[in-house]
């Protein structure tokens, strides 16, 4: 399974979009711990929406 997910920054209201094979809540935790440059500078985040797909290509 693949997920497309949308996170909203509590800090500045920016939206981050990502694709992952992990559960969206797991990925949210990783982003809130500063897993990449954008989320490190703009976090913390809340999960606002996600979609579940059969494969990365569909996502």
Write a concise keyword list for the protein shown above.
single chain; 59 residues; alpha+beta; elongated
Brief overview, please?
Helices cover 25% and strands 39% of the residues. The protein is of the alpha+beta class.
Derived structural class: alpha+beta
How much of the polypeptide forms β-strand, as a percent range?
Answer: 35-45%
Number of helices: 2
| Poorly predicted tracts of residues | none
Strand neighbour order, sheet with most strands: 2-1-3
CA radius of gyration: 11 Å
- Distance between termini? 9 Å
Give the overall shape.
elongated
Number of strands: 3
Average the pLDDT over all residues and give the rounded result: 94
User: How many domains would you count in the coordinates?
Assistant: 1
For the biggest sheet, the summary is: 3 strands, antiparallel
Classify the helix fraction into a percent range.
Answer: 25-40%
């Amino acid at each position: 399974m693949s997920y497309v997910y949308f996170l909203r920054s509590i800090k500045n209201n920016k939206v981050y979009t990502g694709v992952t094979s992990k559960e969206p809540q797991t990925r949210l935790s990783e982003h809130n711990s500063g897993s990449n440059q954008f989320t490190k500078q703009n976090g913390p985040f809340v999960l606002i929406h996600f979609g579940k797909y059969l494969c990365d290509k569909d996502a």
